[in-house]
Every structure is written in C-alpha cells, then in structure tokens.
Sequence to fold (307 residues):
Amino acid sequence: MESYNGAMEITLESIQQLKKEKNAVILAHNYTLPEVQDVADYVGDSLGLSRKAAETEAEIIIFCGVSFMGETAKILNPDKKVLLPEPRAGCSMASMCTAAQVREMRRIYPDAAVVAYVNTTADVKAESDICCTSSNSIKATASLEEEDIIFIPDMNLAAYTANKLPEKNIIPFHGYCSAHHGITTWQIEDLRTLHPGADIVSHPECTFDVLAMSDFIGSTEKMIDFVRVSDNNEFIIATEVGMLYRLRKVRPDAKFYFPPNALCQTIKMTNLRLVYRSLVDGNGEVILDPEISRRARIPVERMLSLD
Ligand code: CIZ
Fold:
C-alpha cells in the first residue's frame, strides 16, 4: 500500500496502524457508512460524540460526520488538529440558519434566550446561550431562567421540546432536517399495517404528527438503548437509514423497517479511502476563527456541564 490514489486495498489493520502512529482518534456518527463505523474508536449520537471530543487525549481527531460536527469538536479542542475527511459534507438544516438571522430574532424578542441545536454552524453557536442535542433539548431549555426561548434551527425539535415544557414560550426558527421532515404519517401508517406488532421508534427531528404515532422518541443513541432492552423483535424506525447497521449489531434477532426516503446523502460521502487520506496527509482540516470559536465554546460547554 503506497498511496491512497491508486487502486489498492485499504484495510482495517492499515487504518489502525496509522491511527497509532499519528496518535489519532476516529469518531463517527451513527448514520455513517458501515465501513467507517468499523474503523471508528467511538460511534454515537451528537451528545456522545461531543463528550468524546471533549475528553480525548489524542492529538488528531478524525471526525466522520458532517461539518457542524467537526466544528463542534474543534470548538472543544482549539489546540488540536480536527479533520473532516470529506470537507464538503454539510448539513442542510445547519445551513438554513445564519448568525444574522439569530441576531434579528434577538432584536425582535429582546427578553428571549437562544437555544441552539448542535446542528448549527460555529457562527450561529457564537450567538447562542446554550446548545442542545436531541437527547438533552428538554434539559437544556429547562435550565434557562428565561420564559421566552428562541429555539434554532429545527422547528420539529422545537415543537417536541415545547410540548414537554408548557411553562416555556418557545419561538421556533423554521428549519428542518430533510431526511426526517420528509417522513410522513402515511408512510408510518403503511408500515404499521404491514407490521402491526412493531414498535414505532422515532427521532425528535420528525414532524409532530409522526411523533404522536410513536411508542418511543429519542436521539439515535437512545433509540439503540430502547431497542437493545426491548422484549419486542420488530421495530419501525423513523430516522436515517444508516442506523440499520448499529441496530442489527445490538439486536441481530430483530427486524427493522424504515420509511423509504430517510437518507442523508452528505453524511454518506465519507468513506474509508477518505479517512485513510486524512490520516496520511491531514486532508480536511477544520479551521475556525479564534474569536468565533471562543464565543461558540460557551454554549457548548454550558450544555456539557448539564449532566
Ligand atoms: O444522532 C442523533 O440523534 C442526531 C441526528 C442528532 C443528535 O442530536 O444526536
């Protein structure tokens, strides 16, 4: 194996060897390709990944996910090298909301605090009071003194959180994740007709109507925990289809049914060859403006200090 450009086989062993030589850690989101999950030191949801990024002692963090995830790792590790093997892998929801829009909402609602879902750019985090993930949006929002809460950018997570916290006045930004927002009640209804015994397990980025049909709602990692200990062996899974790989590992005996269009194409752009390339030549370094990074760290650390 001489270069990553030619036709050559990149093996698990070659990646492990390079990781050791470079003192690198590989973090991967639950939606990444199986070949990427197989070489990762940790696979999980945004909260788990942020925690791992905050505590790692490795010099290089290879982040297999989309750009806001790499940025969050860099915000938490300004002195480390953070590499996003496919730097073009963006998140459509994160790009729906700009820092200028957040400033404008603050101008309109001067008494409100801002809760930023982790699916935001560093610029947007820098304008926010606290970050949250889908596993702690309720806790993060409840931790704020303000009654009025500007919740950005996911209107579905905002609705889910608002429903659990009637004492708060949640003002949503109208962004959404295309993969989750596109899951419809009739798709879930069709799957339920075909598999009447299955539990419906949904991600809070789904619409409120889909959540209303669900037996369990949670982040990807919480969904895995639910399935792991469930007595049932059939599940309708309302989230991105990349989850199938981990779900099959934790419950090889169970059957999983996904709606047909739940796919995040950008997170699938990272493959083994790109991971190898980042390890060899540092491709995809995440660079942030130091002042933005300093300001964005405050809401991220505020979130991490909640548990
Ligand atoms: O992994 C998840 O649950 C996603 C997509 C987001 C999050 O907040 O962790």
